[in-house]
Specification:
globular, 126 residues, alpha/beta, 3 strands
C-alpha cells in the first residue's frame, strides 16, 4: 500500500468503505465520500461538523493505521485549545491511540517517536 517514497497509496479495495456515523448529516457523508476518493479540503462554518467528517474518515482508514503499521495520521489544528478538544473527540469515536503535541519550540525536531500511537493531533505553527 505504500510507494517507494513512503507515501500511502490507497486503492479502492474491500477494506476501505465509508463508515458514516448514524447522526451524520447528508453533507457530512457527501464530504466523507469525496475525501475517500481524492484529496479534499472541507470548508465549513464553525460548529458545522468538520471534526465529525474527519472522525468518519479516520474510521474508514483505521485498518491502515492500527499497529503494527508504519502509517500514522496527523491531525493539524490552528489553536492550542483545539489540540486536546480534537484528540478527545477522536478517542471517543474511534479505537485509535492518540498522542498530542503543541507548543512553540522544537515541535518537529524535538518530537519523540510515535511508538504505538495511530494518530497525532498537533497545533500548526505559523
Amino acid at each position: 500500500m505504500a510507494s517507494e517514497s513512503g507515501v500511502m497509496d490507497v486503492q479502492a479495495d474491500a477494506q476501505l468503505s465509508a463508515d458514516p456515523l448514524p447522526f451524520a448529516r447528508c453533507y457530512q457523508v457527501e464530504a466523507l465520500e469525496k475525501a475517500m476518493k481524492e484529496n479534499t479540503i472541507v470548508y465549513l462554518e464553525t460548529g458545522s461538523g468538520k471534526t465529525l467528517i474527519a472522525i468518519m474518515l479516520l474510521r474508514s482508514y483505521a485498518y491502515l493505521l492500527r499497529k503494527p503499521s508504519r502509517f500514522i495520521a496527523v491531525f493539524l489544528v490552528p489553536q492550542v485549545v483545539l489540540v486536546s478538544q480534537q484528540a478527545e473527540a477522536i478517542k471517543m469515536h474511534t479505537d485509535l491511540k492518540v498522542q498530542t503535541y503543541c507548543g512553540d519550540k522544537g515541535l518537529i525536531s524535538g518530537m519523540p517517536p510515535c511508538g504505538g500511537d495511530n494518530l497525532i493531533a498537533m497545533r500548526c505553527l505559523s
